[in-house]
Amino acid sequence: MSDDSGLSDHARGVVVTTICCLAGIAAGLVSAAYVGTDPAAAASTTAVFVLGAFVIVQYPVFKAVGVGDLGIKDNLYVAFLTFTLWFISYTVLLTSAVDLGV
User: Fold this and answer.
1) Predicted model pTM
2) For the chain, what is the radius of gyration of the CA atoms?
3) Where are the transmembrane segments (predicted)?
4) Containing H/E element for 88?
5) Which residues, 6+ apart, have CB-to-CB distance to 97 below 8 Å?
6) Which residue in 24, 44, 71, 96 is deepest, having the highest Cβ count within 10 Å?
């Protein structure tokens, strides 16, 4: 079964999941580079704004790769998965005190 985009349901799910995971990891790296990894950076809300930007930027990417319109369940999935990967990657960078040198 496929929608107007030409992708099967499975391929569509794989594409959305891959983009969300990569965006979450990238958001974690950008948060660490822009906000920092010292203890004061852990309390900064700027990192959450970086996460929000990465969630929003995904939607034009989805349209570019032919995913089509997303429903409310898909939008919640995108936000949750991006948040989860951002949280994991940024937490690892914070706890290891990595200096990205930016």
Assistant:
1) 0.86
2) 15
3) 12-35, 41-62, 74-98
4) helix 72-96
5) 37, 38
6) 24
User: Tokens 């004061």 map to which residue?
Assistant: 40
Tell me which residue has tokens 């983009």.
Answer: 19
Amino acid at 96: S
- The amino acid sitting at 2 is S
Output the six-digit token pair for 72: 């409310």
pLDDT tens over the chain, length 102 residues: 344 556 788 888 898 999 999 999 999 999 999 988 888 888 888 999 999 999 999 999 999 988 878 889 999 999 999 999 999 999 999 888 777 765
Cβ 69 vs Cβ 75: under 8 Å: no
| 77 contact partners, CB below 8 Å, separation of at least 6 | 16, 20
CB 13 within 8 A of CB 6: no
